Amino acid sequence: MSQQNKKKQTVTIYGQQYTVVGDESAHHIRMVAAMVDEKMREIGAKNPSLDTVRLAVLTAVNVVHESLKMKEELEELRSKLDHN
User: Where does the protein end up (predicted)?
Assistant: First the structure.
């Protein structure tokens, strides 16, 4: 990641502010933060006794699980297209 292309964006996730640095647009960074915040709130509502660290880890596990499922579905679709 080039120093010149880095963008800083302050976002709020689950009531905490974070400065995110990356190559993506500010809109993209805010959208990612909003999705993480939404997932944490969803999981937190179902598990109100979780502390923030455990909630963050459980959120990460859920998001990675969803990502893997999507990759598997994409591969299945690609495979079907290749065989047609």
Answer: Cytoplasm
Sign of CA dihedral 24, 62, 52, 45: positive
Spatial separation of the C-alpha atoms in residues 82 and 39, rounded to whole Å: 35
Kindly state the DSSP code that residue 18 receives in the 8-state scheme. Answer: E
Q: Does 22 have pLDDT greater than 60?
A: yes
Give the whole-angstrom CA distance, residue 11 versus residue 79.
39
Each residue's pLDDT tens digit, 23-42? 999 999 999 999 999 999 99
Rounded to two decimals, the pTM is 0.83
Largest Cα–Cα distance in the chain?
A: 50
